[in-house]
Amino acid sequence: MRRVPYSTYRLQLHKDFTFENAAAVADYLQRLGVSHVYSSPYLQAAPGSMHGYNVVDPERVNEELGGEAGHQRFCERLSELGLGQILDIVPNHMATRRQNRYWWDVLENGPSSRYATWFDIDWNMPEVRLHNKILIPVLGDQYGRVLTQNQIRIEHDTECFRARYMENYYPIAPRSLALPLTKAAQYADNATLNFIADSLSRLPVPDAYDAEMVLSRHRDKTVIYELLHQLCSEQPAVTAAIDRAIAELNADHDALDAFLDLQYYRLAYWRTADQDLGYRRFFDVNTLIGLRVERAHVFRATHELVLQWLDQGVLDGVRIDHPDGLRDPKQYFERLRENAPDAWMVAEKILGPEEELRKDWPIEGTTGYDFLNLCNRLLVYEEGLSDITNAYAAFTHEPVDFDDIAHEKKMNVEHELLGSDVNRLANLFVGICEGNRDRRDYTRAEIRRALREVAACFSVYRTYVVPGKDEAEREDQNLIDQAIHDAKDNRPDLDPALFDFMGDVLAWRARGEMEGEFLQRFQQFTSPVMAKGVEDTTLYCFNPMIGLNEVGSSPEAGALSLEAFHDRLARVQSSHPHTLNTLATHDTKRSDDVRARLAVLTEAPALWKSSLRKWSRANAPFKTGIYPDRNTEYFLYQTLIGAWPISVERVSAYMEKATREAKQQTSWMAQNKEFEDALRHFIEQILSSQEFLAEIEGFVSRIQMPGRINSLAQTLLKLTAPGVPDTYQGGELWDLHLVDPDNRGAVDYDARRSMLSSLEQGMSPEEILQNFDAGLPKLWLIYKALHLRREHPEWFGANADYTPLYGRGPRKDHLIAYLRSGKVAALAPRWSLRLGGWSATSVELPKGRWRNALTGDSVQGGSIRLETLLERFPVALLIHDTE
């Protein structure tokens, strides 16, 4: 039987918040009404990991969190309290750290490694120097300079041989040791050592797919190394001779260069990753290598522990990280479902505004970004948003065509960050064209340009065409055809037939082994293009109303009508009633309460415009030359308004990250110290100005209450809409955090316990509202709604009903309302700054007695004035009384 949560609470586990800490807050979460703790990844990650997504060993529990013993105590505590658990899992990639024994083995043995088939590595790069080698872009300068400065050394101890650069270590290929060990054998006059050197030189070099030979080689290598270890332990003279040979090797740059060339990796200047990397990464992160989880043996090995926990009931479900990076997401979901038929599964699939989750995927839904953006757009006032966009254009002189900006930024990241991926795709497509006389004259440069253009023209993260099927799904065909059409329009200088052929390959109309390989790799590529080009660049450049700039958002889509909102929720209830609904995650650009406050700006565009001009004039003396630029200044003011109160340290750290992501004045790859120093100085000065502080506090005081009402409104929607509501850690009170790492700090659970105790002891709505600043109304709303879901899960489940309610009267557009199963009515206002009172606006409720769970008041069904329903609390959660 499927174990579906009725609510989740996300916890970020790391060395400063371990299994022990999580167990300690579990009773509070149970009292709050949570059904499942939703844990960040906790398989063994790289040392010091603050998020867990850089896994180094999927077969062990993270020792920094408490290891297996700590995990067991944590799970036992959850079980004692009747709480379930959801785990975030990472099937797409692993970290390339030396603690990753699988990766270490690949670096040591190359294509002959037992784990060479685990990773998405291209061993056949066209450059001879990279054939059967993995580029490791870690050097701080050109390889030759680093080598001659003696920064790369070969080291030896009783355990192993390794290459060292700074604090980084890399294994040594066994066959390459033959030369230094032969020399050492001569120094020691030792026949056994000479035999060992000869044996290493004779190790076979099988292909990764020759499993029997790979295992035979591994056994032989292990025996030889054991013999070497024993010899060194018993005969110190042998160790001394080896040390002498290694010292001579390190002293001879030519010899060391030749020795390093024998390795299955190539240490290189860090900038080479842009163009020469030979493996698939997570986005542009060189230290996260893609896994070939579509291969059954890789799936089994990397999922064994998680599947064991699911089978034992330790876990009730999983959150699947970055499924769009996988070669075939549907195949992965099906394999996972086959192995865990009763698990609740949601995937971090980022949907476009009009995109639907594929109905044939055997998962419950998404991780909730689609719901988040739905609420975002619902709270925005369309006319005011238009005015604000015009004000932004006038103030910054920046373009305001979002699609054009997004296309430009995608093209940029393809060139600057993802060039290696483009090159590998181009190599494949060149091979395809070479086999066809009508296409073999397309140059590599033309193919690269066409590839980049087509990828940049996709409006969604990726398509899901499967080679071997009869044809692509209609949805995929339409997306591909549109991208090809747009690419041809954008690049009239390229042969249209090249684009058409590329479209045929992507839609599986042109078929073959190489075509299928290209198609699958291309689909994996468009997701990083969208993520880095839009999510991590455009959304920091296009700033009219930054509250709309979220993961999966399309700010150009504008405000959302009530009809569209209800239609979307009705479809969710029909297709994915157990999807996850969230308003904040560890990855959101801003917390839910920051966005809720910023949405109020669209209700007061004139106030924003006049304040913007006033602040800019007053703060002009604090600029350093032209810095910060107008776009950054505009972005900063909205950030201050949304997150106020905020310290100089927090806003400075955030703005440094935001401007580097924007890649306009500075970037991670090319930091502009002059700009960054000027920006930091500007922030320090304006936040030291009493006049400006008074202005900011005055402005925030005018929009703070409408922003809080927005927060309560969207929280009520999350708690009652079709789907499973999730609360991000600490978000049960007002949360004014920004993007990570700002949103991953410590949470004060002692304060939350105390406030919850006060609510449990009994407080009137008026007493709760007197504690508005502390966030008590939000906590109260979450507490009451979660307990309602606990008591009556059937009212919100797969068989529940969703019925829109519409207001009647002059303020009807300000009401968001619906029924769940005829038993619960949720009513929330929007645009409260413009509301000015409900006047004669009413809503029609089904007959019978309705009790407000938030106030205790009761009303009879029929036409009810909203001023009656919302008089004592900003939102209403009504329960149909059957007695």
Automatic annotation (TrEMBL):
InterPro entries from the UniProt entry: GH (IPR017853), GH13_cat_dom (IPR006047), Trehalose_TreY (IPR012767)
Glycosyl hydrolase family 13 catalytic domain sequence ranges: 19-509
Superkingdom per UniProt: Bacteria
GO biological-process terms attached to the record: alpha-glucan catabolic process; trehalose biosynthetic process
Any one Gene Ontology molecular-function term assigned to this protein's record: (1,4)-alpha-D-glucan 1-alpha-D-glucosylmutase activity
Entry protein name: Malto-oligosyltrehalose synthase
Lineage: Bacteria, Pseudomonadati, Acidobacteriota, Terriglobia, Terriglobales
